[in-house]
Amino acid sequence: MTDTPTQLFIGGAWVDAADGATMPVDDPATGEILCHVADAGAKDAQRAEEAAVQAQEEWARTAPRVRSEILRRAYEIIVERTDELAHLMTAEMGKPLAEARGEVAYAAEFFRWFSEEAVRIEGGHGVLPDGRNRMLLSRRPVGPCLLITPWNFPLAMGTRKIGPAIAAGCTMILKPAPQTPLSSLALAAILKEAGLPDGVLNVVTTSRAGQVCEPLLRGGRIRKLSFTGSTNVGRLLLAQSAEAVVRTSMELGGNAPFIVLEDADLDKAVDGAMVAKMRNMGEACTAANRFFVHSSVVEEFGRRLAERMGALVVGPGTRNGVDVGPLIDRVGRAKVEELVADAVERGARVLVGGRTPEGPGCFYPPTVLTDVASDSRLMDTEIFGPVAAILTFDDEDEVIRRANDTPWGLVGYVFTEGLDRALRVSERLEVGMVGLNTGLVSNPAAPFGGVKQSGLGREGGRVGIDEFLEYQYVAVPVR
């Protein structure tokens, strides 16, 4: 921890908060304080904004190849420091080291992907239909951006936003979640080492998000907001962005259905369920929330899933052999406890787990519930914990209706061996992404995002850079 920056990163320099404030960073496995980092306020937000605005014009003129090579160097540094970054991530948010290493690789890949996209920003040219003008179409950076990232994937959510912003020629202010600031500060240090000019990326760690973000969004100089987090906070930020008509992309909450049809391969379905449910201890917006299992296979599926979940080892993420680390904090664990208790009160049976262990840390055991009532609170709440809630169905139309009966639409999972049926069910789901016979959809080369109240826009893939670019059309008379 001694080599990890703990100050704000503004204009290429490490600085304290203007009022000297700091905030603790806790280890969720022990409850102990790891360190203190600078706690930014309104003056620090102004300093960061000024640095980003001042750097924007020159950065926008920087050759795409230069931007590409900075991202490529940063990718290589991240890969070289996989173990160091993984230990840092596990310390501040709890995931087992094996998962943390996987996230480091995932995070690095966004920089490699967008290093390649930086040199493929194209416009267009042609004569307009009336023959009077030629059209020159170019793409330009949208301008200074505010990037707000969550605590559950602290490194990857940073690179997924920073990568396309750098590639497009935008400057940035990054505000990481207060629970996990260290990964973002380490990332800023890596980008500085990779040659990113001063002021292009500024990092403000804060527990005073309202003081930092609202003035930036209402002030008119920030031209783009990219946010990943809860739908409730997303609504608030959208309202704040409206005054200055700030362009927004929002990756919000999910309530993913996991559908097991009667012809599913149960080995594939259980394997997929373990990934879709237990990645990151269930603390993911893509986590399977509602397991709809056909009545003809529900007993067998539940038995197999409970057996697999019960075999997982819970403990500190740094300990060898641990599969499931702690939840992020006691508030998050209390939410999971309350949701399980409510489901049980309404008639759910606990196949495995369901009881909070004694001792330090924010641990909760992998839990499988069956006979879950449709009016249970966890049916319309993002669980964000290692709890699989199983419901039964008998009819395809019925399960699609129930799966779509939610204001969210991020991702859904479908398990069936019939190709026509697989495509039919996938196409009828009101979601932005579908895992078809797989429990993992996230990939830097694929567009990530949802519909309905799960968000606006897409991150990653060939369209990921579009969120940070504007079109300019120039009319040239034909003579």
UniProtKB/TrEMBL annotation:
Name of this protein: NAD-dependent succinate-semialdehyde dehydrogenase
Keywords: Oxidoreductase
Tagged with keyword S-adenosyl-L-methionine: no
Domain of life of the organism encoding this protein: Bacteria
Pfam family name, one: Aldedh
Family annotation (PROSITE patterns): ALDEHYDE_DEHYDR_GLU
GO biological process terms on file: gamma-aminobutyric acid catabolic process
InterPro entries given in the database record: Ald_DH/histidinol_DH, Ald_DH_C, Ald_DH_CS_GLU, Ald_DH_N, Aldehyde_DH_dom, Aldehyde_DH_Superfamily
List of catalytic residues: E251
Family: Belongs to the aldehyde dehydrogenase family.
PANTHER family xref list: SUCCINATE-SEMIALDEHYDE DEHYDROGENASE, MITOCHONDRIAL (PTHR43353:SF5)
Domain (Aldehyde dehydrogenase): residue spans on this chain: 14-474
Any one GO MF annotation of this record: succinate-semialdehyde dehydrogenase (NAD+) activity
